[in-house]
Design goal:
It is built from 3 helices and 6 strands, in the order αβββαβββα. The protein has about 110 residues and is of the alpha+beta class. It has one domain. A hairpin with a 2-residue loop joins β2 and β3.
Length: about 110
């Protein structure tokens, strides 16, 4: 039996696309104004202590807010910013993707 490759499944199986932001490559469902929508996160992204993460990982993900759409129709904004010792921080939940994008623009880019 072939080994299940989670990365390939999500990248090819559900329409993941490749985006480049600040010289780093990401896979996500979409990217609007350099804001990732449903990005493919590294294994253990929300359980690995920040102190154990590599410099390369932190350079790529630290202070990069992203949006995750939930099954209940809510769009959550998360960011690996040190607000939690082992995971990304929940920054808010929004009824629309546009509201989530506007929140990120207002909080992180102004």
């Amino acid at each position: 039996m072939a080994r299940f490759d989670r990365y390939q499944y999500f990248k090819e199986g559900v329409g993941m696309k490749t985006f480049v932001i600040a010289g780093h490559e990401y896979s996500a469902k979409n990217c609007i104004n350099d804001i990732l929508i449903n990005p493919l996160l590294p294994d253990d992204f929300d359980s690995e202590p920040i102190i154990n993460r590599t410099e390369e990982h932190m350079d790529k993900w630290c202070r990069l807010p992203y949006i995750q759409s939930q099954d209940n129709g809510i769009y959550t904004v998360r960011c690996l910013d040190g607000g939690a010792w082992d995971r990304s921080s929940l920054k808010g939940g929004f009824d629309t993707q546009e509201q989530a994008i506007n929140f990120i623009i207002g909080k992180y880019r102004s």
